[in-house]
Design a protein that fits this description.
Elements: E1 7-10, H1 15-29, E2 36-39, H2 45-52, E3 60-62, H3 66-76, H4 82-103, H5 112-117, E4 136-143, H6 145-148, H7 155-160, H8 177-196, E5 201-214, E6 217-221, E7 229-234, E8 264-275, H9 277-286, H10 290-319, H11 330-334, H12 356-363, H13 365-369, E9 372-373, E10 379-380, E11 384-389, H14 405-415, H15 419-425
Parallel strand pairs: 1-2, 2-3
Antiparallel strand pairs: 4-5, 5-6, 5-8, 6-7, 8-11, 9-10
Helix pairs in contact: 2-4, 9-10, 14-15
Length: 440
């Protein structure tokens, strides 16, 4: 209808990657010839070359960030340069695919049974999990923003603006230091306003539940009698071929097995620092102040992550209390020196986003803190964080990586869905190219 010259797709979370491939295949089916630009936080050149470009005979190009899009768009709309660019990109992506497939050897993957046999070996005989200081839910309706600013990790803030470097060293960087200092000073000024004028409200809900491992699932119960199952969280296991001294990990490994009879627990949380942001964004939009709008979104994201850090510290020291004596600086908190982890659905250790629905249900996150899920499992407000609390000292972050057909089929059975549905949910982690259903 709009007679556009170029179509652009941007992906924030991993389900977007599969949707991009679907859009590309639909463009092919409908006879499109318009160039397709791919960008966003979860995308990459390899994924574009492997999963998206093969779906569409038109020109498909990965763009690393918005600033690069201008030059590419200029070439694509130039009668002299567009064909040359299209041919160069297609040749490059063929090479990217060939290089990737050379590395993806069949012998680099364990079967699911082999991976499970090589799971994390934890000695539960000499460990007794600490019972949380309360079971069930507790909500925090107005977390002090002044307190939260002490927990901000500033390094990702600068990456939002395409400034590479670690805070605070980036402020003295020979190349980007001056720009970083100006940006940091603007951020601190706005942060003062956010705190003093209450532009944003931060809320959280935390829950602790009796839990037990059942295979690669973690079952949580309604109470400590452990007779009635409340929910079952499904986790994935690493399948890469590993030496016997390196485990094929699964998050479920960090919870005591049901057969052990050891009473263990699992926590969950959902926090947001984005409540109220729409009002200020609308104000900036009316005055065409794009810089302040982007700055506020970036600061809200930092405050959301700070909320997650703050609530995790409260969990370790008092709410659950399994590390009541710990004392870490903000620098040490950023390095995650503490006991326990808080992995989030959609991230490497548990990459399947739809598991958020169960987490949100047991936490009553929508009603208690005003966070909702979109159809694609993104959180709104966007400046929100949710995840699980694992307390075991051996719990570590890891990446699941690629999973094989056997684990996909097993996951589908555990989740009560078709293999095709599971393949779509796990599209970014498949070792094989799934068959896309034909559209009418």
């Amino acid at each position: 209808d709009e007679k556009v010259d170029i179509i652009g797709l941007s992906g924030l979370i991993t389900p977007s990657l599969e949707e991009m491939a679907t859009v590309a295949s639909e463009m092919q089916r409908q006879g499109f010839e318009v160039p397709l630009l791919i960008g966003g936080a979860t995308t990459s050149k390899v994924h574009t070359a492997l999963k998206i470009a093969p779906q569409y005979e038109g020109t498909t190009i990965y763009v690393t960030d918005a600033s690069r899009a201008v030059g590419i768009a200029t070439q694509l709309t130039s009668d002299e340069n567009n064909q040359k660019l299209a041919e160069t990109i297609k040749e490059e992506y063929v090479q990217v695919r060939e290089n990737y497939l050379k590395k993806a050897r069949p012998d680099a993957q364990f079967s699911l049974n082999e991976a499970r046999a090589n799971g994390a070996k934890i000695d539960w005989k000499d460990y007794r999990p600490k019972k949380p200081n309360f079971l069930g839910l507790r909500q925090f309706d107005d977390i002090d923003l002044k307190e939260l600013r002490n927990y901000i990790d500033w390094s990702p803030f600068f990456r939002t603006w395409e400034l590479a470097g670690h805070f605070p060293k980036i402020l003295d960087d020979e190349i980007v230091g001056e720009t970083a200092r100006e940006l940091y000073n603007d951020a601190l000024t706005m942060l003062d306003q956010i705190v003093s004028e209450k532009w944003l409200t931060a809320k959280a809900v935390v829950g602790f539940f009796p839990a037990a491992r059942d295979g690669d699932d973690v079952v949580i119960y309604t109470d400590d009698t452990r007779k009635t199952e409340k929910h079952r969280f499904l986790f994935l296991r690493q399948q890469m071929s590993r030496a016997k001294n390196r485990a094929n990990q699964c998050l479920a490994d960090f919870v005591a097995p049901k057969a052990s009879g050891i009473p263990d627990y699992l926590g969950g949380f959902a926090v947001t620092a984005g409540l109220g942001i729409e009002r200020k964004l609308e104000e900036f939009d009316r005055t065409h102040d794009d810089y302040s709008s982007i700055l506020l979104k970036a600061l809200a994201d930092r405050l959301a992550e700070a909320s997650a850090e703050y609530m995790h510290e409260q969990t370790r020291k008092s709410l659950w209390g399994y590390a009541a004596e710990e004392h870490y600086s903000n620098k040490e908190l950023v390095k995650e020196a503490y006991q326990g982890i808080r992995p989030a659905p959609g991230y490497p250790a548990c990459p399947e986003h739809s598991e958020k629905t169960g987490l949100f249900d047991v936490l009553e996150a929508s009603d208690r803190v005003g966070i909702n899920l979109t159809d694609g499992f993104a959180m709104t407000p966007a400046s929100s964080v949710s995840g699980y609390y694992f307390s075991h000292p051996a719990a570590r972050y890891f990446g699941v990586g690629n999973v094989g057909r056997d684990q996909v089929a097993d996951y589908a059975k555990r989740k009560g869905i078709s293999v095709e549905q599971a393949e779509r949910l796990l599209a970014s982690n498949l070792t094989y190219e799934r068959v896309r259903p034909a559209r009418a």
